């Protein structure tokens, strides 16, 4: 986690951040790597136990009841669905930024 934070701080110092197409590739590789690590750990645990032992309520953790776990799982899914609705706004911001930069370039050329 600390390494990820350091990487974010270093990448935030790069000027001309809108012109870094390679950064998308790096982010995709990092995401795929994290997913592969999680999948590998999960498969390793299944091999170690000899069976798949899991459910929506998971294992017992302190005073959290199975009902609370299910509720929190649905809350998390709702948060993801809510955040997904803003993805179109991010695309619109990117398009508008590109159009603005193109108009500046055209006006400077004239």
Describe the structure.
The chain has 110 residues and is an all-alpha fold. The chain folds into 2 domains: 1-53, no CATH class; 55-110. It is built from 4 helices and no strands. The longest helix has 29 residues, at 21-49. The chain is elongated, with a radius of gyration of 22 Å.
Key features?
elongated, single chain, mainly alpha, 75% helix, 2 domains, 110 residues
What is this entry, summarized?
It is built from four helices and no strands.
Total count of domains: 2
Order of secondary-structure elements: HHHH
Query: Approximately how much helix is present in the residues?
Result: over 70%
Mean pLDDT: 80
Return the structural class. Answer: mainly alpha
Tally of strands? 0
Secondary structure layout plus pairing:
Blueprint: H1 2-12, H2 21-49, H3 66-84, H4 87-109
